[in-house]
């Protein structure tokens, strides 16, 4: 029986009477990559912001590693790493300085943060550019630094919100390999993306959100099986069937 | 506390990385200082022009009066015709003209009373009043000479001593008296010299610290724009630590500029004693803390960099205008009451007490208390505002 690591319980969040997340519940098991898919405005980012302690839920709770995001936010923060959708870096500083700073904020000593920063940059294929200013980096390099920052500290769980947006195939492949390596190392990962083949390749299980609710949750194989022969249909076919073909804002 | 210091160091590092911003903010005090020194540095004492209409050009006493005026280092002499002077007074080109009447010397020779005429627009202006006072002093001296001469002449009447000899002896006696007066005056300056640089320096210093409000106001908005605010909020850094770190960074930036300005004033102009210099730095530090806290209040409510900048600029300019930065505000006026809510009033008063009046920190306890209070209350309010504003925590 796999160990439950993240349990979302009836999460609700509204902005100006507009329901962004409407009663979302799911469980992520330790060491799995859990995909959270959905069209724009489905509520994925709001859900991640609640799970990562940035936003307080209107109702419901999330238990991460046995700690409630409502009551034990500090304990939750010591267990998570976040790689937000937008680049969240100090562009005037070097890649190394960015990583060391966030490492220190995660509670590491200067020496430890520096050593781990170099290791993370090595992992992302950026060790030679460690001292380069981030504003001189390409989009793909910035994405990799963004991911490396999320890995600083010793997170047991990583939130990856569309980490491959605007990235060239080489950088994307590097990111995939890194994520798979992290999963193999026992890290629990919540992953959102608009690229269905990416979710199909990486995710052990996938939840599809629309209108603030979870409308499907299973393994990619099982989801494909629901609409046809799993070898012949794609996750994108499932996604479009469940969420419709009308354009979203 | 340790994380807050790390945030402050990080913030200052980013500030130091931006060469353009850095050059601007550090060179600005140097340029301001150079301008201030160029404009006021050499002018330690009064210097004015005496505008004279001499209607007794051939008279010995009018010539003597003008010679004595010319001997004064602080006064330049400009002779005008009566028509010129009247026209300039009419047009307010001049505020004060001194007229020597045509019978000035003749009346004095015959022992009669005569009058110098001071014509002025309004009160004659500050320069006119000082020049008039100097001329009154010269007229007083001439009066004393005549009194002594007349008493000597009447005492020696009947003896066979010529009036010329009496005049020479009297003159020598008066000159000796002037060189060694019975009642002398010694000037002693305490702490600093009361010149124009001293008068303006407090205003310039407080203005620079107030500029730090604008930088502080950007603190949270910039993090939000970069996306790093959310990321920081998911680390073990508490919001309190984040705010305290930003507060310390704001103090460092505000203090750095002030340090340059005060340092240059100390080294180049030697305006203060070493103790006064240190006291000024203490005031600058507390004032920078108050300004940093005000910046954070703006940072807590502003949603965009434009909002933060404009609120900060409005606040800064209002305080500069109402705080008596560059002009005296008379006690009891409406502006005086308004100035009491302006932060730089207290900093300005404190700096003036140390720089221009030679006071010490014990004399500015109330001002330091107000500034420190604003720093503590401002920091607390900014934290509360961040919590209650949408998206805050």
The helix/strand class of chain A is: alpha/beta
Topology order of chain B in helix (H) and strand (E) letters: HHEHEHEHEHHHHHHHHHH
The profile of the biggest β sheet of chain A is: 6 strands, mixed
Give the neighbour order of strands across the main sheet of chain B.
Answer: 2-1-3-4
Question: How many β-strands of chain A, per DSSP?
Answer: 10
Spatial order of the strands in the main sheet of chain A?
6-7-8-3-9-10
Radius of gyration of chain A: 18 Å
Mean pLDDT of chain B: 83
CATH third-tier fold name of the domain at 1-79 and 158-165 and 190-244 in chain A: Rossmann fold
Helix content of chain A: 25-40%
Structure notes:
The complex is a heterodimer of chains A (249) and B (393). Helices cover 35% and strands 25% of the residues of chain A. With 249 residues, chain A is of the alpha/beta class. Chain A has a domain at 1-79 and 158-165 and 190-244: P-loop containing nucleotide triphosphate hydrolases (Rossmann fold). In chain A, the strands form 2 sheets. In chain A, strands 6-7-8-3-9-10 form a 6-stranded mixed beta sheet, with helices on both faces. A 4-stranded antiparallel beta sheet of chain A has the order 2-1-4-5. Chain A is globular and about 50 Å long. By secondary structure, chain B is mainly alpha-helical. Chain B is 69% helix and 5% strand. Chain B has helices at 2-17, 19-40, 60-71, 82-90, 104-109, 125-155, 163-179, 196-226, 228-233, 239-269, 274-301, 305-322, 334-339, 343-355, 365-388; strands spanning 48-54, 75-79, 96-100, 117-120. A 4-stranded mixed beta sheet of chain B has the order 2-1-3-4, sandwiched between helices. In chain B, helix 3 links the parallel strand 1 and strand 2 (75-79). The radius of gyration of chain B is 31 Å and the shape is elongated. The chains are: A alpha/beta (249), B mainly alpha (393). Chain A binds chain B through residues 49, 52-56, 74, 77-78, 80, 82, 84, 86-93, 97, 101-102, 104-107, 149, 153, and chain B through 3, 6-7, 10, 13-14, 17-18, 226-228, 230-238, 391, 393.
């Amino acid at each position: 029986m796999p160990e439950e690591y993240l349990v979302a319980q009836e999460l609700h969040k509204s902005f100006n009477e507009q329901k962004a997340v409407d009663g979302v519940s799911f469980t992520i098991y330790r060491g799995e990559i859990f995909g959270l898919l959905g069209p724009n405005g489905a509520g994925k980012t709001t859900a991640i912001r609640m799970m990562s302690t940035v936003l307080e839920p209107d109702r419901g709770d999330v238990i991460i590693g046995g700690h409630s995001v409502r009551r034990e936010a500090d304990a939750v923060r010591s267990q998570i790493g976040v790689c937000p959708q937008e680049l969240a870096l100090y562009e005037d500083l070097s890649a190394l300085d960015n990583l060391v700073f966030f490492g220190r904020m995660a509670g590491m000593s200067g020496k430890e943060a520096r050593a781990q920063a170099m290791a993370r940059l090595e992992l992302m294929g950026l060790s030679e550019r460690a001292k380069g200013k981030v504003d001189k980096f390409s989009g793909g390099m910035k994405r990799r630094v963004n991911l490396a920052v999320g890995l600083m500290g010793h997170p047991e769980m990583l939130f990856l919100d569309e980490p491959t947006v605007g990235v060239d195939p080489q950088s994307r492949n590097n990111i995939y390999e890194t994520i798979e390596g992290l999963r193999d190392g026992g890290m629990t990962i919540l992953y959102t993306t608009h690229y269905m083949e990416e979710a199909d390749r990486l995710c052990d299980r996938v939840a599809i959100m629309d209108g603030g609710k979870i409308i499907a949750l299973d393994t990619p194989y099982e989801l494909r099986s629901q609409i046809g022969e799993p070898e012949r249909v794609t996750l994108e076919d499932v996604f479009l069937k469940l969420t419709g073909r009308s354009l979203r804002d | 506390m340790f994380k807050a210091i790390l945030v402050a160091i990080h913030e200052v590092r980013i500030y130091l990385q931006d060469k353009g911003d850095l050059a601007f903010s550090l060179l600005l005090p140097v340029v301001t200082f150079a301008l201030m020194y160029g404009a006021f540095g050499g002018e330690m004492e009064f210097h004015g022009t005496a505008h004279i209409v001499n209607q007794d050009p051939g008279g010995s006493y009018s010539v003597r009066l003008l010679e004595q005026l010319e001997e004064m280092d602080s006064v330049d002499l400009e002779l005008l015709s009566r028509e010129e002077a009247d026209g300039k007074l009419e047009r307010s080109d001049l505020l004060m003209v001194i007229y020597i009447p045509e019978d000035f010397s003749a009346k004095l020779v015959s022992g009669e009373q005569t009058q110098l005429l001071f014509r002025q627009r309004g009160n004659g202006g500050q320069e006119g009043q000082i020049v008039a006072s100097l001329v009154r002093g010269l007229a007083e001296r001439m009066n004393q000479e005549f009194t002594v001469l007349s008493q000597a002449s009447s005492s020696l009447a009947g003896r066979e001593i010529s009036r010329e000899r009496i005049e020479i002896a009297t003159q020598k006696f008066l000159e000796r008296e002037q060189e060694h007066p019975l009642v002398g005056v010694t000037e002693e300056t305490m702490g600093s010299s009361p010149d124009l640089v001293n008068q303006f320096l407090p205003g310039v210093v407080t203005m620079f610290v107030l500029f730090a409000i604008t930088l502080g106001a950007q603190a949270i908005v910039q993090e939000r724009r970069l996306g790093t605010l959310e990321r920081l909020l998911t680390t073990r850094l508490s919001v309190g630590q984040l705010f305290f770190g930003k507060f310390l960074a704001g103090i460092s930036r505000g203090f750095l500029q002030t340090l340059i300005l005060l340092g240059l004033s100390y080294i180049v102009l030697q305006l203060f004693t070493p103790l006064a210099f240190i006291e000024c730095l203490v005031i600058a530090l507390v004032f920078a803390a108050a300004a940093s806290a005000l910046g954070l209040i703006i940072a807590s409510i502003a949603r965009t960099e434009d909002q933060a900048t404009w609120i900060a600029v409005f606040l800064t300019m209002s305080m500069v205008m109402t705080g008596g930065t560059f002009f005296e505000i008379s006690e009891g006026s409406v502006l005086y009451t308004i100035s009491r809510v302006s932060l730089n009033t207290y900093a300005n008063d404190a700096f003036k007490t140390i720089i221009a009046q030679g006071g010490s920190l014990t004399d500015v306890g109330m001002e330091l208390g107000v500034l420190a209070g604003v720093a503590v209350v401002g920091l607390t309010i900014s934290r509360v505002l961040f919590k209650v504003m949408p998206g805050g925590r």
